[in-house]
Design goal:
The complex is a heterodimer.
Chain A (H helix, E strand, L loop, with lengths): L23 E7 L3 E8 L4 E8 L5 H15 L7 E7 L2 H8 L5 E6 L5 H4 L24 E4 L2 E2 L5 E3 L3 H14 L3 E5 L8 H13 L4 E4 H4 L5 H31 L6 E4 L5 E3 H6 L7 H16 L5 E6 L4 E6 L6 E2 L2 E3 L15 E3 L3 E2 L2 E3 L5 E5 L5 E7 L18 H7 L17 H16 L3 H23 L11 E5 L3 H11 L4 E4 L6 H6 L4 E12 L5 H21 L7 E11 L6 E5 L6 H19 L7 E12 L20 E9 L4 E9 L8 E3 L2 E5 L2 E5 L4 E4 L5 E4 L1
Parallel strand pairs in A: 1-4, 4-11, 5-6, 5-9, 9-10, 13-22, 22-23, 29-31
Antiparallel strand pairs in A: 1-2, 2-3, 7-8, 11-12, 13-14, 14-19, 15-18, 16-17, 20-21, 23-34, 24-27, 25-26, 25-27, 28-29, 30-33, 31-32, 33-34
Helix pairs in contact in A: 4-5, 10-11, 10-12, 11-12, 12-13
Chain B lengths: L3 H25 L3 H6 L2 E7 L4 E3 L8 H14 L10 E4 L11 E10 L2 E11 L28 E5 L2 E2 L1 H9 L4 H29 L1 H24 L4 E9 L10 E10 L2 E5 L15 H13 L10 H4 L2 E4 L18 H15 L17 E9 L2 E9 L29 H7 L2 E8 L15 E7 L3 E6 L20 E4 L7 E3 L2 E7 L4 E5 L14 H10 L4 H8 L3 E2 L4 E2 L1 H10 L12
Parallel strand pairs in B: 10-11
Antiparallel strand pairs in B: 1-2, 1-5, 3-4, 3-6, 4-5, 6-7, 8-9, 9-10, 12-13, 12-16, 14-15, 15-20, 16-19, 17-18, 17-20, 21-22
Helix pairs in contact in B: 1-5, 1-6, 3-7, 4-5, 5-6, 7-9
The chains are: A alpha+beta, B alpha+beta.
Chain lengths: 716, 585
């Protein structure tokens, strides 16, 4: 399939002066199937978009092609691009494929089997054929280093430098692409790790070396070792990739430096990306949540649920009070994550901050099937892009959610991706008839409706995991739906939770890319301290925090941030001695005196009282210090949308039969052209709204208003 | 079949409600067992006590809630139960497990009618007995394990029964914690009730009830289908325990006969040895749990766990035996017998296991070490469960250090850094134990070997098994190596400890070496692909000597490759495998 790269450019509703003197921001989002580019003209509030098929062999290629497409449409030149933010699936792909050359792993003598002893998660209690996550390093490239540091950071066995030199000699023969070093208690005393890195550098000056004391110095050696090894594994490729992309952008005359989105919802510099590549996993989904948070706040919604449905998965995240929630127990390389509370998902744990989102295997390509007990199931298998849904005509014979939506009349056979692709409804009907309707004794329409609704039920669980399961009532939230398939399902999902307001933003298919341009630079750092309150002096606390902040501050200054644009947030994970769980408590920034230190403890007592209703006599212990250092960036804003005559008839394309369960069968349903809708227009469901990259389905009982930002506001 | 959409929605709602109940307990509880080990469960039942939903991860406790509800209904007939009543029970002879695992059950009324029950269970902080925390390996009577609570009302029509709270508080070393844990159980049960009522509000009580029936029928249908695909017949297995921590000369054998006939299964444990004086006895609910777990391993794991799964199953549990003891046998180490029931059934059904599910040889078991002492007047206690390897399987090798079976994920493999930070211990090594996996066409998973140096004087306690009798292999596979506890290994002061012992004094500076058992091998070792043996040697899982002795594989030491010709000759020369390392059974 080839796509006209510019067919997705949005008509500019407001003629603007020539872009000379304008400032542009550039967002590049490489997804599994498509690479999306948005070029935003800040002053004129104009957006130039482009979509290309992703080029897996050389990811930079597709993004540069899309960039050139967008630049051709824009008035200004590359010299006016003041910011570039990039999200990529590269890290996720590398981890899933596992095709990189192996990493060498050095650890404390006596502990070489760390990946073979810890970390078992059984996907199902009754599955006798389970496996532990595949160790990320090879036994033959694992080396034990004679050394030992105890819990207080004291050396109880000196580093055997002769042994290290012997290891260096053997590594020189193997020539591994990267080396990971993780010693016990290195979070407390990094000296041995640093010394070993220095000795290795003499023999292997070009090797990429990752130290656990630098990557993520938090206690619990298994998780820290995983983070270190995965960082080493990704490092050489990601470093090469960002260097290449940055130089290509420079060659095209773009003065802005390259920034890369992180899983925590902040961006980072290219240099930091090369040193800490693991932070770039799941950056695309994070950008979507950030978009919903940022623009939702602009539109006046403080509490939103971001819902993103693509071809293979649906993702939900909750944003209370304008801030996405962060969690620290993501798993990579297993099945799609479905919320951390579910026991026994595969993959390796990554204990770094990641925007909290639940992902379920429900997308346009999810396959419908009847199980041996006669129950209809949808997913988690996906037909993907090849062979794709039956209606694509690429040879797929299994009925998918897209096939069901086509049979229900929700999608147009002639206007999929704006008409760039024709869909064949007869193939959909045949697949549904054979695989679903006949076994269940249903008509084809009933079968299609059942597939649509079960897909909705599966996606409901994603929303449920991030709301109800966290004790959050979704009815206090507004749903923001995006991704190619999200707007076709969202109203029914809202009904399941009795939610009354849904927002479909402009550019729903590129909304995550827009989120890139709403990001700040933001660095998270951690250090395990494990010190009781009475043993923590102000001098030590100041030293630790200043050490943690030094690197991020230097990076932000290099990126050109002024002091007034930089902010630091500190917090501590604290607990009563020997409690099972810690509470995160914000603490003072800047130079700490005894008074500020006393406030650490008072802050903890207050939060504990709020959460558990008790205070205790026991001593307070600090487990981790955390900092977040941010550089405030200029963000895009969505301008007001033109107000028109108010009569939605002007945007009516025609009608087609569509099935809504309330009506009991296919009924003629009005179809609107989103590009011709203007602010202030209203109409009622049942209705369908088409645009090039997405289709919104409005069931009966819902009314639509186009708000002044150009959003479709669905209300019930 | 009912409306397929509603069916999935209601199924999801009940399952999510059960998961939420578990989360609510973990968040508000005090006991370290609950917080660190997730030692808790929850369930939703119909008005007549049929299981509707449970959290996905824990089965061991659930069968207890199910039986306790039945016992409760004997003492409190349904017509006497009122809105706002809440019940408590921990009596192993009334459906519970042992003193410290407390069941809390409450009715869910909707528009004045008793429609459902929600129940929660957790290992609470302390309920008295001869040792803190309630796991005395030396107990010989139920009462040594702590306060016994028959089914009784904790709340009556919404009002706290104050005297019950007082009685429990007065019988605990940690009254504040234990009452906090019980309130956490109530919070969990209440969350479930709220979610159920919200579902009834939305869809109507009758529609939901009809759908719940259909859900139970669906699980029953799929369970029967799974059983029907197995060849009819009676299959037998047995498993030998080390000891009960008291009578070291006695035999403790579990016997199982599994009869498959026309989509139903009968499990008969007749022939199992009489109950023990020590605490290894498994109360009825726990034996049932071991049986259900084993049979579910024969079936598609995606069948929803509910009452429907129990319907095609019949059991015979002879009274007065290890698997259905009479009062007042103590029960706190019942996991050892439950694991033996599982192994006996796994051995029995190995020949009929569907290939996609996989048969398995015997595994290492969870071995629990506790170390406690006084650090300048402050009392400290360290709990360290460690796993052995799983048995070799019909399609692949066993999994190293993962022999938890019914206990699921989340135990064993504790982080060394966390153990050292909280306790005066220094770990000198923590590695897979070479050659511990039983040799076989598919090798047993390895146990671990770890050395712990005590930095202060302390007491150590062990609750283990499969030390004297290592996990046997199946279908010609060799046994794994038995686990063990050795003080000051390789010195003049070397001392081996038995599999169950309490309060062994150890001095600062002494080193305890812990070994966990390796899993049994599956199939004859001489049938193992020599290349896999070579890889095992390279990875340190198997020694070069064992490769030769047990697998008949000759490695060329220079090229580190299999010497194909020599291996073929060696294997041909011993076409009858040597019986020297065969295990029991």
């Amino acid at each position: 399939m080839t796509l006209d790269a510019t067919f997705l450019e949005q008509p500019s509703p407001q003629p603007s002066p020539r872009g000379i003197g304008s400032v542009y921001s550039l967002g590049i989002d490489i997804g599994g199937t498509f690479t999306d580019v948005i070029l935003a003209d800040h002053a004129a509030g104009r957006f130039f978009t482009a979509k290309r098929l992703t080029t897996p062999a050389d990811l930079a290629l597709g993004s540069l092609q899309a960039l050139e497409d967008a630049l051709r449409r824009a008035d200004g030149g590359p010299g006016q691009i003041a910011r570039v933010v990039h999200a990529t699936t590269l890290a996720t792909n590398l981890l899933l494929e596992g095709k990189q050359p192996p990493v060498a792993f050095l650890t404390t003598a006596g502990f070489k089997d760390i990946f073979r002893i810890q970390g078992v998660r059984r996907p199902s209690l009754y599955d006798l054929l389970f496996e532990r996550p595949r160790p990320p390093v090879d036994e033959a490239l694992t080396f034990e280093v004679p050394e030992r540091i105890n819990r207080s950071g004291v050396v109880v066995r000196p580093l055997d430098e002769t042994a290290v030199r012997q290891i260096a000699a053997r590594l020189a023969d193997h020539r591994p692409a990267a080396i990971a070093i993780c010693f016990l208690h290195a979070y407390r005393n990094p000296e041995h790790e640093r010394r070993v890195a220095a000795i290795l550098a003499e023999r292997l000056p070009d090797a990429y070396v990752a130290l656990s004391s630098e990557i993520w110095p938090e206690y619990r050696e298994y998780e820290r070792a995983v983070a270190t090894v995965l960082s080493a594994y990704l490092g050489p490729v990601i470093r090469g990739y960002v260097q290449r992309l940055a130089s290509e952008l420079r060659e095209r005359g773009i003065p802005a430096s390259l920034q890369v989105m992180q899983s925590n919802g902040g961006a980072m510099s290219a240099a930091t990306t090369a040193a800490r590549p693991l932070f770039s996993i799941e950056s695309g989904p994070a950008a979507g949540v950030l978009a919903a948070a940022h623009f939702g706040a602009d539109w006046g919604y403080r509490n939103v649920i971001a819902f993103d449905m693509g071809g293979t998965t649906a993702k939900a995240a909750v944003v209370p009070d304008g801030r996405p929630l962060i969690r620290h127990d993501f798993r990579v390389g297993g099945e799609a994550s479905a919320g951390g509370s579910q026991a026994g998902r595969g993959g390796l744990p990554v204990h770094m901050p990641v925007i909290d989102l639940a992902e379920v295997g429900a997308g346009g390509g999810s396959v419908a099937w009847v199980d041996s007990g006669g129950a209809l199931q949808v997913g988690p298998q996906s037909a993907g892009a090849q062979p794709g849904p039956a209606c694509y005509g690429f040879g797929g014979a299994e009925p998918t959610v897209t096939d069901a939506n086509l049979v229900l009349g929700y999608l147009s056979p002639h206007y999929f991706l704006g008409g760039a692709m024709k869909l064949d409804p007869e193939r959909s009907e045949r697949a549904i008839a054979e695989k679903v309707a006949a076994p269940l004794g249903l008509s084809v329409s009933e079968g299609a409706a059942a597939i649509h609704e079960i897909a909705n039920a599966n996606m409901t669980s994603a929303i449920q995991l991030v709301t109800v399961e966290r004790g959050i009532d979704p009815r206090e939230f507004v749903l923001v739906a995006f991704g190619g398939a999200g707007p076709a399902h969202i109203a029914r999902l809202a009904e399941a939770f009795d939610l009354r307001t849904v927002v479909i933003p402009r550019f729903p298919g590129l909304f995550a890319t827009l989120g890139l341009l709403a990001s700040d630079l933001s660095y998270d750092r951690v250090r395990t301290v494990l010190t009781e309150h009475d043993d923590l002096g102000a001098a030590e606390a100041n030293r630790l925090f200043e050490e943690m902040e030094a690197g991020p501050l230097a990076d932000l200054r290099r990126e050109g941030f002024a002091e007034g644009e930089i902010s630091v947030h500190r917090s501590v994970d604290a607990r009563y001695r020997h409690q099972g769980y810690e509470l995160n408590v914000p603490v003072a920034t800047g130079h700490l005196g005894e008074g500020e230190l006393a406030a650490f403890r008072e802050g903890f007592l207050r939060v504990h009282q709020q959460q558990y209703g008790t205070t205790r006599e026991e001593p307070v212990e600090y487990v981790n210090f955390r900092v977040r250092v941010s550089g405030r960036a200029t963000k895009v804003t969505l301008p007001d949308y033109p107000t028109g005559s108010g009569d939605a008839q002007a945007a009516l394309k025609g009608t087609r039969p569509a099935l809504f369960r309330e009506a009991g069968g296919h009924r003629p349903t009005p179809v609107y052209d989103r590009a011709r809708l203007e602010a202030g227009m209203t109409f009622s469901g049942p209705a369908i709204v088409e645009e090039t990259e997405s289709t919104t389905v409005v069931p009966p009982d819902w009314a639509v208003t186009v708000d002044r930002f150009g959003n479709l506001l669905l209300k019930r | 079949m009912t409306d397929p959409v509603l069916f999935q929605i209601i199924r999801n709602r009940f399952t999510t409600a059960a998961e939420e109940m578990g989360l609510a307990i973990t968040r508000s509880a005090y006991s370290t067992y609950i917080k660190e080990e997730g030692d808790t469960s929850a369930g939703i039942f119909t008005a007549t006590g049929e299981l509707v939903a449970q959290p996905a991860s824990r089965l061991i406790h659930l069968s207890s809630l199910r039986l306790t509800l039945r016992e409760l209904l004997k003492d409190f007939p349904p017509e006497t139960i009122e809105e706002g009543d809440v019940f408590l029970c921990n009596d192993p002879y009334r459906g519970a497990i042992h003193s410290n695992d407390v069941n809390l059950i409450r009715p869910v009324f909707y528009e004045g009618v008793l429609r459902y029950w929600t129940g929660t269970l957790a290992h609470v902080a302390d309920l008295g007995g001869t040792s803190a925390g309630g796991l005395p390996a030396t107990a010989t009577e139920l009462w040594h394990e702590g306060l016994v609570i028959p089914p009784l009302k904790l709340y009556e029509r919404g009002r706290e029964v104050d005297s019950v709270f007082k009685l429990i508080g007065a019988n605990s070393r940690m009254p504040v914690k234990v009452l906090g844990d019980i309130r956490a159980l109530l919070a969990g049960a209440n969350v479930g009730a709220e979610r159920i009522c919200a579902t009834l509000d939305k869809y109507g009580a009758d529609v939901v009830e009809e759908t719940v029936r259909a859900l139970l029928d669906y699980s029953e249908r799929r369970t029967r289908q799974g059983f029907a695909e197995l060849p009819d017949g009676t299959y037998r297995g047995e498993y030998l325990l080390d000891d009960d921590g008291n009578d070291f000369e006695r035999r403790y054998l579990v016997k199982a006969a599994v009869t498959v006939k026309g989509g139903e299964v009968l499990v008969d444990l007749t022939g199992t040895d009489p109950q023990a004086r020590g605490p290894i006895n498994a109360a009825r609910s726990q034996t049932l749990c071991g049986i259900m777990y084993s049979l579910r391993c024969l079936l598609d794991p995606n069948i929803p766990m509910n009452e429907g799964c129990w319907r095609p199953l019949q059991v015979i549990l002879p009274e007065g035996t290890l698997v259905n003891p009479r009062m007042p046998a103590p029960c706190n180490a019942r996991i050892i017998t439950v694991m033996a029931v599982i192994e006996a059934i796994m051995r029995a059904v190995a020949p009929i296991m569907p290939p996609a599910r996989g048969a398995i040889a015997a595994s290492g078991i969870v071995q629990v070490l506790t170390v406690d002492g006084q650090d300048s007047g402050r009392y400290w206690i360290h709990l360290e469960p460690e796993l052995g390897g799983t048995g070799g399987r019909s399609l692949k090798d066993g999994v190293d250090s993962a022999g938890a079976h019914v206990l699921g994920s989340g135990i064993g493999g504790l982080p060394v850094e966390a153990c050292e930070v909280h306790n005066p211990l220094l770990y000198e090594s923590y590695s897979l134990w070479t050659d511990s996996g039983g040799a076989g066409k598919f090798r047993g998973g390895l146990g671990v070997r770890k050395e712990i140096r005590m930095l202060e004087d302390c007491l150590i306690n062990v609750r283990a098994d499969r030390i004297k009798y290592p996990p046997p292999g199946v279908l010609g596979g060799d046994a794994g190596k038995g686990g063990g506890y050795v003080l000051n290994e390789g010195t003049a002061a070397e001392r081996r400890l038995p599999s169950k012992t309490t309060r062994v004094p150890v001095r600062a500076g002494e080193v305890l070496t812990v070994f966990t058992a390796g899993g049994g091998g599956f199939g004859p070792p001489l049938a193992r692909d020599p290349e896999l043996v070579r890889r095992d040697v390279q990875a340190g899982r198997v020694s070069a000597e064992s490769a030769h002795r047990d697998y008949g594989v000759i490695l060329d030491p220079d090229k580190f490759a299999v010497d194909g010709l020599a291996t073929e000759r060696e294997r041909a020369a011993r076409s009858i495998p040597s019986p020297s390392r065969r295990g029991q059974g």
